């Protein structure tokens, strides 16, 4: 009987009380007042109350109870399903955002590495251009000095020619004068000999001797004049030839000087162009970096909003429980007020007292039952939360052990120093999957609210949902990041490698759930031998693996290979200016990196290539780039760009190709898990 009374609804109680109240009121018929005699109606009322009313109340109560139980069950199931969907949606969104934020951090680190490499290449190129410019300037100064010296020599030669011409003209004039005088003397002697001919033989003989001597003197002077004139002409011709040769040399020097000036202008222009190009590329990288940082900030804001939403869901669940209990208290107050104020109380008969006592007993038992039921609901919820936490922890622990056994790596992106130097800041990601599960189990969500949060842009930021659709496309190779659905009890860590998380974001990502990389469908090809696929196992003996591949490592002095690493010199082609620079490379399977330094004594790396980004390693048979030794050139293709290397020997090149391909974790063509 008590159980039946406890199952009576508040409305049924109120209706029963009102009907009992109506039975005790007087009736008016035909304008005359007819008072019901208490002594005559008490048996009838007693019979009605004791027989008819409980049956009707129990019948109506059973129907109402069944309908109310069904409606309440359906409502609870709907709210529970909506709450789970909403919690799952928030956790999936948080997982997507964390994954994309991790990719953005890697992109920012790559951009900073590119900026440093560009600055180093700019410094190197500027140093080369400056040295060449200084060398050309020095040659230009020397040539200009030589031209000035030759011009001075030509001037001196011309002055000497003028002086020589003047002196020669004077000497020739004197010689000519002597010749003329000798001619006059000969003419006088001839006239005197002609006048004195036949008069005195002795005098004639003397005049003939004088004439012969004077004639000889004339010939001597004439010959001296001719020799002087010839010598002057010969000397003048020699000086003219020398001057012409010097002038031709000056012309050649002038042409060289002009070419040198043009070359210097070209070097200056090239240096300016390189600076402008580097500045332009630096600005482009800076814009990309700022865009990534802006998206990171949006992701952090969205994560904070999601955490606040989960926390508010947990608080609202408790508040809703209090609100659900308050209507029952109001109903109890109404019942007490009705039973207290009812006219039945004024009746001193046994019917009123029994009814009131019965109703009060129903009310007390109902209050006890509801209180007990409320505490039972709270304890059930707490037990479910504890069970959910325990199951999540067991799942996390089991999957973490599976990760360590599989020895595979998905999120091994940043090394210790790299993650600290390239860290953008801590990710405000809030709680992990366990907290999300706690919040989710304490909340009941209406279908309207669920539809509100399933729009493409949930949360306070209108465009934050774009983080869910970040396309990790690099160098034309699209990949899609898809998350696995959370199971009904929460989520655990996926089956990645046992390597430690390298950033706060990646650790939070691991705590939320698993990431699965799915590539586009590719045509099925014949799977190559296991030796020619990447090897992710940490127990691999690298030296034994390379020796069993047929390489005679003791005879190859350009490469040093041990159980976990490989080192040696390689020539690397720069990205910007396509220069070949000799670098010391270290392949480390523990760090899962291919790092290169300036030399083997340097400790600061010039660049890092992660195993996860290495897609292919192959020899450059097509001569894709201009190399000093095409037969020694090979290519390491990554998700960002291809790297071109040149080995010192063919044996070293083959060893490097086999070594690097063991770490090509980005090669998924024959991966059975995809």
Strand fraction equals 5-15%
- Secondary-structure-based class equals alpha+beta
* Mean pLDDT figure: 71
Given the C-alpha coordinates, what overall shape results?
rod-shaped
Tell me the major beta sheet: 8 strands, antiparallel
Supply the CATH architecture of the domain at 113-289: Orthogonal Bundle
Order of helices and strands: HHEEHHHHHHEHEHEEEEEEEEH
What proportion of the residues is helical, as a percent range?
Answer: 55-70%
User: Unreliable segments (pLDDT under 50, ≥5 consecutive)?
Assistant: 1-8, 24-52, 323-332, 338-351, 407-519, 521-530
Taking the alpha carbons of the first and last residues, their distance comes to 65 Å
> Which CATH top level class of the domain at 113-289 fits?
Mainly Alpha
CATH third-tier fold name of the domain at 113-289: Helix Hairpins
Give the number of DSSP strands.
Answer: 12
Q: Tally the helices.
A: 11
* Rg on CA atoms, Å: 56 Å
């Amino acid at each position: 009987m008590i159980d039946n009374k406890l199952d009576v609804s508040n409305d049924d109680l109120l209706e029963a009380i009102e009907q009992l109240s109506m039975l005790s009121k007087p009736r008016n018929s035909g304008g005359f007042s007819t008072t019901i005699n208490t002594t005559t109606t008490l048996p009838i009322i007693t019979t009605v109350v004791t027989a008819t009313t409980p049956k009707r109340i129990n019948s109506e109560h059973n129907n109402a109870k069944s309908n109310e139980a069904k409606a309440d069950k359906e409502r609870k199931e709907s709210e529970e399903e909506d709450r789970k969907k909403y919690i799952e949606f928030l956790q999936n969104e948080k997982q997507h955002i964390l994954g994309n934020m991790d990719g953005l951090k890697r992109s920012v680190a790559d951009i900073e590495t590119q900026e440093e490499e560009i600055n180093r290449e700019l410094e190197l190129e500027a140093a080369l251009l400056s040295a060449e410019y200084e060398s050309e300037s020095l040659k230009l100064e020397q040539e200009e000095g030589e031209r000035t010296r030759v011009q001075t020599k030509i001037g001196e030669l011309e002055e000497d020619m003028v002086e020589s011409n003047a002196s020669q003209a004077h000497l020739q004039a004197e010689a000519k004068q002597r010749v003329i005088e000798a001619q006059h003397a000969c003419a006088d002697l001839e006239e005197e000999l002609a006048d004195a001919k036949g008069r005195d033989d002795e005098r004639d003989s003397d005049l003939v001797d004088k004439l012969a001597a004077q004639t000889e003197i004339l010939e001597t002077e004439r010959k001296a004049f001719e020799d002087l004139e010839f010598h002057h002409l010969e000397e003048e011709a020699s000086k003219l030839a020398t001057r012409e040769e010097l002038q031709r040399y000056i012309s050649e020097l002038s042409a060289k000087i002009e070419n040198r000036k043009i070359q210097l202008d070209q070097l200056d222009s090239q240096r300016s162009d390189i600076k402008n190009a580097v500045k332009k590329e630096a600005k482009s990288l800076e814009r990309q970096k700022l865009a990534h940082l802006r998206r990171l900030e949006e992701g952090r804001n969205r994560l904070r909003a999601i955490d606040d939403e989960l926390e508010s869901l947990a608080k609202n669940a408790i508040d809703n429980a209090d609100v659900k209990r308050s209507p029952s208290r109001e109903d109890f107050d109404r019942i007490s007020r009705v039973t207290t104020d009812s006219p039945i109380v004024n009746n001193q008969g046994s019917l009123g007292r029994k009814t009131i006592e019965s109703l009060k007993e129903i009310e007390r038992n109902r209050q006890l039952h509801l209180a007990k039921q409320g505490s039972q609901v709270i304890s059930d919820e707490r037990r479910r939360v504890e069970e959910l936490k325990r199951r999540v922890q067991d799942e996390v622990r089991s999957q973490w052990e599976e990760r360590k056994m599989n020895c595979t790596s998905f999120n091994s992106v940043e090394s210790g120093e790299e993650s600290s130097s390239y860290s953008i800041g801590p990710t405000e990601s809030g709680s992990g999957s366990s907290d999300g599960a706690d919040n989710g189990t304490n909340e009941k969500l209406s279908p309207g609210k669920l539809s509100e949060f399933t729009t493409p842009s949930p949360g306070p930021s209108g465009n934050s949902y774009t983080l869910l659709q970040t396309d990790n496309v690099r160098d034309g190779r699209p990949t899609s990041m898809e998350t696995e659905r959370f199971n009904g009890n929460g989520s655990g860590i996926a089956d990645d490698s046992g390597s430690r998380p390298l950033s706060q974001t990646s650790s939070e990502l691991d705590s939320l759930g698993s990431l699965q990389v799915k590539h586009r469908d590719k045509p099925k090809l014949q799977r190559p031998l296991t030796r020619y696929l990447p090897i992710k196992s940490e127990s691999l003996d690298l030296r034994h693996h390379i020796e069993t591949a047929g390489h005679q490592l003791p005879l190859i002095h350009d490469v040093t290979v041990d159980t976990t690493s490989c080192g040696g010199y390689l020539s690397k082609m720069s990205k910007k200016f396509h220069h070949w620079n000799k670098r010391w490379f270290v392949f480390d399977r523990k760090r899962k990196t291919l790092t290169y330094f300036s030399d083997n004594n340097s400790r600061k790396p010039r660049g890092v290539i992660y195993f996860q980004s290495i897609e292919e390693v192959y020899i450059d048979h097509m001569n894709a780039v201009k190399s000093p030794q095409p037969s020694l050139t090979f290519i390491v293709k990554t998700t960002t760009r291809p790297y071109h290397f040149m080995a010192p020997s063919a044996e070293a090149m083959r060893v490097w190709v086999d070594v690097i391909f063991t770490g090509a974790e980005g090669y998924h063509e024959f991966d059975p898990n995809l």
